[in-house]
Amino acid sequence: PPGRSLRPLPLAAWARSRVSETAWTPLTRQPSHADAEPPRGPRHRTLAAAARDARLALLGGAIVRDPDSGRRHNTALLFGPAGEPLLDYRKVHLPDEEGYWEAHHYEPGDRLEPPARVAGWGVGVQICSDANRPQACSALAAMGADVILIPRATPAETWPRWRLVLRAAAVTSCAYVISVNRPGSRSGGVIGGPSVAIAPTGDVLLETTEPVAAVTLDRAVLDTARREYPGYLDVRADVYADAWRRV
């Protein structure tokens, strides 16, 4: 049942006690046809209730079945502090290898969702392997993301590469990047390695394997990073779009 695998209420209450504005649970369920739910299904309602009860914005996830096509999508769900849905994002880049056969289970998403506003911050969302195609983070920042949330389920031995990718995403998009990893085991391998919060300068603000942690974001750091190199460089969407059309 969703209540057994998603226990956001104690985490949300803890985060509220630390004066957090957003509590974040990583995606937690293994691929399974029985695990999919319709839009606004039980996990959606569980997360919405948790956000509302704790008066926090909250990011969680579900496998959501498209009511028209029947196809299943790995979906991130962002809620506001009144439990209102702010953003649903379908993972675009699906791995296809031993232990990570997502491409066999799910359909990829086909759009970036514009950032939502949370406590005055623009919040964009990616999921796990999406971060390895940095165009999306750059586009989210250009669309107004100040913070990019990237939940992961990755093995500990890959952490050095993920750390590099996530720091690069923060610098090149000039946004905060926060990535929570899922601990524990799953079919095909063991998940582990740190969760991390990275400033738009690339500085690592928090790197931890604790299940719950808090970090404070500084608007002045973001503003300064965007005034200084490389943050002030033009974002030439016209040039990039033309190049992609010719690929």
Please state the overall shape, judged from the principal axes of the Cα atoms: globular
Strand order of the biggest β-sheet: 5-6-7-8-11-12
The fraction of residues assigned to DSSP E strands is 15-25%
Rounded to an integer in angstroms, the radius of gyration calculated over CA atoms is 17 Å
Give the mean pLDDT: 88
Could you list the spans in which at least 5 consecutive residues all have pLDDT below 50? 1-6, 25-29
Structure description:
The protein is an alpha/beta fold and 247 residues long. The protein has one domain (2-245): Carbon-nitrogen hydrolase (Nitrilase/N-carbamoyl-D-aminoacid amidohydrolase), CATH 3.60.110.10. Helix content is 29%, strand content 23%. The protein has helices at 2-5, 8-17, 42-54, 102-105, 135-142, 159-173, 219-227, 237-245; strands at residues 22-24, 57-65, 72-79, 85-90, 116-118, 121-125, 147-149, 176-179, 184-186, 189-191, 195-198, 204-208. It has a six-stranded mixed beta sheet with strand order 5-6-7-8-11-12, with helices on one face. The protein has a four-stranded mixed beta sheet with strand order 1-2-3-4. Helix 6 (159-173) links the parallel strand 7 and strand 8. Helix 2 (8-17) runs parallel beside helix 3 and helix 5 runs parallel beside helix 6. The protein is globular, with a radius of gyration of 17 Å. Mean pLDDT is 88; it is low at 1-6 and 25-29.
